[in-house]
Structure formats: structure tokens, C-alpha cells
Amino acid sequence: MDIISVRIENYRAIEDINVLLNYPINPIIGINESGKTSILKAILCLDKGRDKFNKGQHLEYQNKYSTRDTVGCRITASIKLTEQEIEELISYCQFNTGTEDYEQLLSISNTSKIQYARTLSEDKTFSILNEEFSNRLKSKLLKFIQNRFPVFLYFDDFTDRVPEEITFNETYINDGKLGRGIQREWQEIIEEILKRSELEGIDDNDKALQNYFKVENRDRKYDILSDIEAVLNSEIIAEWRKIKKRGKNNFADDSENLKLELDNTEHYKFQFKVRDTSNQNKKRTFNVSERSKGFQWFFNYMIKLKFNPRYTKTQENSIFLLDEPGSYLHSSAQTELLKELKSVSEKNTIIYCTHSQFLLNPDDIKLGSIKIAQKQDSKIELDLFGQYKSEKNSGALSPVYQALQLNSANDYIGDVIITEGITDYYVLKMMQENWNFPKPNTKIIPGSGSGSSTNLISFALGFTNNFKIIFDNDRAGHQASTKYVKEFGETIENYFHFYHESKKNFKLENHFSKKDQDRLLKITNSKSLKRAIPILYLDLNEKIKEFLNDMEEESKNLLGITINSIGL
Fold this sequence. Notes:
Elements lengths: L1 E10 L2 E7 L4 E5 L6 H9 L29 E7 L2 H11 L6 H7 L7 E6 L5 E4 L6 H14 L3 E5 L9 E2 L4 H4 L5 H17 L10 H6 L4 H28 L12 E6 L5 E11 L2 E6 L5 H14 L12 E5 L7 H14 L4 E5 L17 E6 L2 E6 L13 H7 L10 E5 L2 H14 L7 E4 L7 H10 L2 E6 L3 H14 L7 E3 L15 H11 L4 H10 L5 H6 L3 H14 L2
Helix pairs in contact: 6-8, 12-16, 15-16
């Protein structure tokens, strides 16, 4: 089954938002305290199996900005079943043919949206909201979905590092009861490691850890731990070595020659240890916390991925909720992390919050997938990048704009055009790649806003054959040009180009007729032309040629005049 969107109502400072899961990777950006983490925690509430995660703090829905009781708190997943699941549902329901229940059941197709909801303000109950279904069908459908519901994996900003010790109560050997909080999560992982290890001599695999504690012979215990070590290294270290062999040393400077072991020197206490043989094959033992930040993140991520008791061995169709992944990794390591997340997203859905442009690289992330969280009057709102309403974004979009320029041309040899902003860059690139204007060998380099291209101009003066600096013919553009004259002298004016100087206040968007602007907004599902253009270029590349060729003559003429007057 696919969760195509999640609606969050009256959860903390969220009044009513819809989280569209329109891509395998779905980043959420926004300034601090904009509600990004609240969105992740609200989504986690859909997974009943995670109610004890972090003492169930995510189930606390009260809006603390208000002194009134929060009512009507509901999280709703819009779900689509596959054709195979629909067949299984029909068999599961066992409705008599010809009944109303049966006819309603047959109306469900792989395009039907089933509204699976949890109402936190009413005893945390689950329900099916589709009014067209009978109560009997709703009851069957509810149980069917809960039995097949995707596993949710929540990673809390990765500050929850591996505990120095994972301790079980002495009564565990008899009652199998676990603790609470972070200890419980790691106790579950220890249990799962022993279950997955399929240990020789452990008869009841479901009680593998309890049976292990009952083993009294020290040598036999040592042999069991040795078998567990083999499993850990095949599942965790093998993946680590794959990263290192791909030359991804930026992920972490740690050695490739590492081995994991599960230490149990004290009866009810476990420790994860790392043996390093990189120094002349001499074995040296460390706690995980003594390794590099990159390895710590990798271990924490992989152990929870591979040995989560609720994660199937097929490792697919799960929902990953990541709060600020890579916060403690340097920029190049974050770039490698994004590639790892992209690999996981081939069979799963990932939602993560971030401030980092390195986790928004347009080579791996579609602009249309980015959601922007903001808080207005103490209420959290969420918009897609193309529909973000605030023009004064208070830095919310800064990571996106920085990421869009990660791949900008930094080669200043030959002829160069420096644009005022990223939107101008994409317009010129679309024309260059489809119409050969500007000339194919002309480098186009995006600035970061009017008045912010001092460094780019410095490089251009030193290295290019010829270059032009492009400005909107408006107040901001002329103010920027005045700034550059003060910085570089009057001769810099020879490199200036203003859009259609004879037309007052002429900006980039004025090149497009009203009809073409409306068409572009519709194609990209955007409300802002300046955001629609990069979405067209980065996300909908296959539609660029058709859009350009179908433009009205008015738009083509205006663009043609600009290109010809630039002359590069």
C-alpha cells in the first residue's frame, strides 16, 4: 500500500495542513521553530507500534501556545492499495455476493483513496473515514490496513547515540519484559539481533535472548557471541566497506578495517564494541562513541535499519522520518549521506527536516518535493516550494537557493554571463540548450541576488575573455549596478546589461506574456513564476522544449531581443 498524503489537524500548533508524499524523498525546510519536527512527530502517530517510542512524547498533541484544551486532533493517511492487496482484501472480507457490503468492496480500485485516521483527542482511536463505506466494510478495512501498515522508522536528529551500556532487568530471563525510553529501543535491537542470528542450540528463536541468558557455560556463551559478531559484520560492516570502496572517504575518515562485536562480560549488560586493525594489523578495541562522527552516524542508522524488530527482511515500503539527518556531519559527508538516502528511497518513502543545502542538491532532490514550514501567528503552515506564499521568506528558502547553485559553472575561461539570480540562470540555460542562444560555449553563472555578485565579478575580470552582468531594469538592478561601480570603477559599466532599457521597470518575468506565464504556472503547479522556472528546468526537463516552442510571438520576440543585445 502507498501513503500518498497525510493530513494533520489540531496537533500542537498545527491547525490543518496536508503533507503530500509526491516523491520518494520529501524534504521539509524552514527556519528554527517553524514546526518541522512537529510535522514528523504527528506522522509518527499513525504507527501504533511506535506508541512507546521515546515514552510516547509524540502522542502529546496539546497546543502549548493556547490555554484552551486542544480538541479534534486527528492524523489521516490517504492510502492506495495495490491490485494484489485489493484481491487479498476481497478474500479477507468474505462478504456474500450480491450484498451492499460486497458491492461497496468491489468499488475499491487501485486509484481509490482510503482515509485511514487516528484521533488522538479521542482515546487515540483508529478509524476509516470514507463515508461511502458501510460500518461493516470499514471495520474489515481497518483491520486489513493495520495488519499491513507500513513500518515507520523515526530517527531523532541522531543525537540519540549508542548507549555505553544496554542493561536488562534480572527478571527479564523469566518474564521477558523490557524497560522504557531509549533503553527499551536498544533492548529491542539486542533481542532482534539474537533472533536474526538463528543461533545454534537456541531452540525457541522468539525467546532467543532469554534462552541465551540461561546458558551457564562460559565457552558456549563466547561461541554464541562469536556467531552474533559474524552477523553484525555481514550486515553492518559489509555496508561500511562498500561505502569506503566507492571512494567515499568524505563520509568519514574512519578505517575500512573495522569489526563489530557485542560484548557481554556482565550477565545482563551488553556493549557494542569496535575492533580496529588498521595499525599494522594490531587489534585495538573502542566504544562506538570513540569513533568518528561519520561512523557513529552510520552505525546508529544501519543498526536501526537492519535490526529494527518491526522492519521486514525485504526492507521496503517503509516510511523513514528523519529529524535533521547529518547535523553533526561536515558538508562533504552530508553529500554522501544524501546519496545513501536516495538509495534507500528506491523502495521506501523518506521524509526529513533539514537546514542544509547539501541535503537539497538538485542532482538528487526534485524541487517539487520540497515542503516549506513556517509559523504564522503561532500556527504552523506547510507549502510546496512552488506554492510558498511568503515573498519575505525570512531565510526559509536560503538552503534551497544555496543548493541550486552547488552545481553552477565555476569555469571562467572564455565568454561568461553572470545573472542577477538563479531564475535568470535557468531561463538562459533553457534557451541555450534548446535554441543555442546564448552560444553553446558561453558559460552562464548564477548570482545570488542583486548586489551580491562581487566575488563573481572579481573572478570574471581576472579570467574571462569577455563577460556580461545581467540586471533587471528596475530600482534594485540599478542600485546593484551603482554598488559595483563604486567597487570596481566606472569601466565596469562596459560589462552591464539591463533587460530592455527602453522599457521602465522591466524584469525577467516581463519577457513572458500573460498567457505564457499562466501556462507555466499550471505546468509546474506553482503560484510564483520565479519558482516555476527552476521547477520546469530541474523537475520537468522533458516539457521545456514544448513550452518554449509553444510560446506566443510576443514572448519569443522579447527573449530574442535580450539574447541578441547581450551578444555572447
